[in-house]
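Risk mitigation, structural track. In case the binding assays with calcium ion fail to produce interpretable data, a predicted complex structure has been prepared as a fallback.
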Amino acid sequence: MQHSAVLNVMIKAAYRAGRGLKRDLGEIEKLQVSVKGPGNFVTAADRRAEEILREDLAKARPDYGFLGEEGGLHRGSDKTHRWIVDPLDGTTNFLHGIPHFAVSIALEREGVIVAGLTYNPANDELFVAERGKGAFLDNQRIRVAARRRLGEAIVGCGLPHYGRGDLALARFEIAAAQQNFAGLRRYGSASLDLAWVAAGRLDAYWERDLSPWDMAAGVLLVREAGGFVSDLDGGDAILAKGHVAAGNETMHRELLRLLSEARKAAAAAPA
Ligand code: 2AM
Ligand code: CA
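Fallback model:
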């Protein structure tokens, strides 16, 4: 598989940041047993990973802008290109020593995501996509699952995070999904959930209250794997609205329908 020069830059940066995170995961396993826990250590690991990415990406493309979870937005002199970067997606998993987290990098050109990558350093799985060139897991072409029956589908989701989000609405949405799909999963890393939809492991996925860096690479991965992805209103304002639904054509459509019914039921329910 021949990648473009820019995707190779992204891959190298992700591997370097990922190597550090994998080392840090070993340290965290030891810190679990300390009373203080690994909180500060994780914050430092997260920052270090973003610094590595910023450094490597800036070295290769010094003019591009950079939007990262840790350091916020840096405008570049090239106004048409921007990196959207999550150095550590699935921070809570990482903090608990759960090996399900990722480095995720997307490249946006004039508002369109043209390259995306999600890398789980714990199991060394690398998902990449370039616009119009397909999606790959470790150099093998990937596609969304072909299942059409909801009763056979495994669906990933997010839940409102502690102290945030609309719990009442989430209860209606989850009940609707439970009643219609074979099973729900909540893995805690949006970028990997989307990559797993692209790889056909999850039949569909939805989540609310996300940030652009959680989703930017995953949106391209799903589309390049032949899937459908939108905001929860069915439109394309995924990064702006911060909510997302993905799956094959049928699963995506049915998931949107179920969630919209759940929303109406939640609005009609007594407070
Ligand atoms: P993070 O691990 O980088 O914070 C899990 O539901 C997904 O939501 C993860 O991709 C996580 O990214 C993201 N997320 C966004 N805001 C969050 C928050 N306040 N608490 C936990 N996860 C959050
Ligand atoms: Ca994240």
